[in-house]
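Dear colleague,

As promised, here are the two records you asked about, laid out in our usual form so they can be pasted straight into your sheet.

NAME FIELD: protein one
SEQUENCE, THEN STRUCTURE:
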Amino acid sequence: MGRGKFKAKPTGRRNFSTLEELEAGRSARPRSFKQEQIVQNKQEDSDESGEESGDIVERRKGTIPFIEIENPNLVKPRSSKAKETNLEEPIELSRREREEIEKQRAHERYMKLQEQGKTEQSRKDLERLALVRRQRAEAAKKRVEEKAARELKKAGTQT
């Protein structure tokens, strides 16, 4: 008979250590591999320290102390000092830096030509501006004529 939608897991019950077991140092949980290694290392260190007095053994983690190879692809960081820099050498830029500088120069050149009115876009803008100025001048002239016509009409009707 089913007991709902969740299945019972075959892991069994969890065992928790009691406070007394923890204080006594004996828990129901078995030691892990790392804990056993630590205990063995401590025992070896105590044995070695008894044999070698004064020598400090440096322990490094992982496989680094065992495998020492020369990697030709490994880039070692080289610190350069201010004294070592040669100011006479031309600075070599990367491709991206060169392209960025060229792009900025081209933009500056374009803006200079734009201000002088030598580009196609600036010519079109100036033509549009001249057209708008002409239309505004014609509209202003027309308003002045209409105002003068109204004044004459008013003056003619009052007498």
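NAME FIELD: protein two
SEQUENCE, THEN STRUCTURE:
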Amino acid sequence: MIFNNLIRIAKPYCYALYSLFFVSGFATATDSEFPNHITIATQHWPPYQQEVNGIQTGFSIHALRCVMAKMKQRYKVVFVPWGRAQNGVKTGQYDAFFAASQNEWRDEFAVLSNTFIEQKWKFYLHKDSTLSTDIDSLKTSAVFGTRIHSNTDHWLQKNEFQKIRQFVSIEQLVKLQSNKRIDAIMENALLFEEEVLKAGYTMSDFKVIENMDYNLGVYFSKSLLKKYPQFLSTFNKSTSACVYAHD
């Protein structure tokens, strides 16, 4: 009798404890589908991304912010040199880097998201250049300046352009070409045009040859995606409402 009474008294508490454990376990499983916080590395690359007095702005910054808000994902963007941003993801220091276009080396240690940030690549020659504007001819005749660690540099080398000189910044490239120290540049159009205006030149100082569209996304580390296999598909679905396209 006493034992039966104890069972009747204890039963509601047992159900309550069972419910608590079930709900708690369910919440933990749901939370574990996504990281609590991720760190994304980037470079100073206006007008796509820049940080001035602690304020982060730019087309890529706003597009990323839009996606993360839709996912309700906590994240932090850190500005470092571009080579360090990429190698930092390779070594596990960072979870991702952006804004980036696809290449084979990056694919070894990271996975590119949907590309949702527009990028156009163009060739630039000095307006007084006597070189042929035929791209196959430029492969052997033109001395190209490129940004080290950039995908434009990687593309030129992959496509067997024979005379490539690497430099640190777009500022150097524009100055060198304006002074006819290099023959050609193949660059992101927005990046090049921004620097030309900043340096006090105009686009009429250059010959422009169309190359290709090669849009940008976020490269997430394979180790992050292995731990959170649902993350990338959810991120990709969220990009459709956050596309940046230059008018």
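A couple of things worth noting about protein two: Residues 185 and 214 are 16 Å apart (CA to CA). The radius of gyration is 25 Å.

Best,
R.
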